[in-house]
Specification:
mainly alpha
């Protein structure tokens, strides 16, 4: 690194780390970093931790405007873009962002994706969701995302606040995306950690957005952990030519929770057997269906050797 970059890093670091500077100066230097991120790429390892700390500070202040909160998210996006650029250029750079910094980025994105208590925060939530998926899939695909933030968010299911249910639905959507990138062992550990809150989510049927998210989650789970369909839903005379339960049946069953319609005769095909929505909308069938799902997942989880489970995520 030549002297010009040394000077740039020194003065930027001083402004970011000096508490004597007010929010105005802090947001000004953050804006400069976002606008000139190509130049700051060369000093990223010096500034990244301070950038994240500044982003957290700005985003957590309730008095700040949506524009300021967006600036905080943009700072996180800059760091992700730096990592993508490093992968794309395939440089001989042996340095990496440390694990604590990466964990902080994922947790920041999960939290702010789920903060939709105001209507004008929806675009910021969508930006965080997009960045979370990019970071997981392309920037740090081999880093295990810790479940602590998911556990805390989904645990709010007991809250009567509809905003909490919307936030939980987003958290479950992100979890479903993660599951699509997980190995079976990671899925088993995830469900072992979150199963109590998720089972509670299953019982809530009067929030269509939450039902839709659970439908998405279970569809992905059953692809990885197949289960046999219950006899109450699939006639015993049917010939089961397919291993496990098809996603179509899962979707139809979960959709019946949201509609609670018993006179809808629309049919779906599973293993070439027509099944009406009326048949699967009975509460006892739904209860049995989820009992089998829960039992199968728990049985699979109990068979996972504890020695290969990363207990740091608890």
């Amino acid at each position: 690194m030549d002297d010009g970059y040394d000077v740039l890093a020194e003065y930027t670091k001083k402004i970011l780390s000096d508490d004597a500077h007010g929010n105005l100066q802090l947001m000004h230097i953050m804006t400069i970093i976002v606008r000139h991120q190509t130049i700051y790429f060369h000093v990223r390892y010096i500034l990244a931790n301070l950038m994240i700390q500044s982003a957290q500070k700005i985003a957590s202040q309730q008095s700040n405007s949506m524009e300021h909160k967006k600036l905080a998210i943009d700072i996180i996006e800059v760091i992700i873009k730096w990592e993508l650029r490093k992968h794309h250029e395939q440089t001989n750079d042996q340095k990496n962002f440390n694990r604590a910094l990466i964990d902080t980025i994922f947790n920041f994105l999960i939290r702010h994706a789920c903060q939709i208590n105001l209507q004008n925060m929806l675009p910021l939530s969508q930006q965080c969701i997009r960045l979370f998926k990019i970071a997981r899939k392309f920037a740090w695909p081999n880093v295990d995302v810790k479940l602590t933030t998911f556990e805390r968010l989904i645990h709010q299911i007991e809250s009567p606040n509809i905003t909490a249910h919307n936030s939980i639905a987003i958290a479950i959507d992100l979890l479903a995306f993660l599951i699509s990138t997980f190995t079976v062992i990671q899925i088993k550990y995830t469900m072992r950690t979150l199963k109590r809150s998720l089972i509670t989510c299953v019982s809530i049927t009067n929030y269509p957005r939450l039902v839709e998210s659970m439908q998405n989650l279970f569809s992905k789970l059953i692809i990885q952990i197949p289960i046999e369909p219950p006899a109450a839903i699939i006639p015993t005379t049917a010939t089961n030519t397919q291993q496990g339960l098809s996603p179509q049946l899962v979707q139809a069953t979960l959709a019946s929770l949201a509609t609670a319609t018993t006179n809808n005769q629309q049919s779906i095909l599973t293993n070439n057997v027509p099944i009406s929505t009326h048949t699967i909308s009975k509460s006892e069938d739904i209860e049995q269906f989820y009992t089998i799902i829960t039992k199968t997942i728990i049985d699979n989880m109990n068979s996972t050797p504890t020695s290969i489970v990363n207990t740091t995520d608890r």
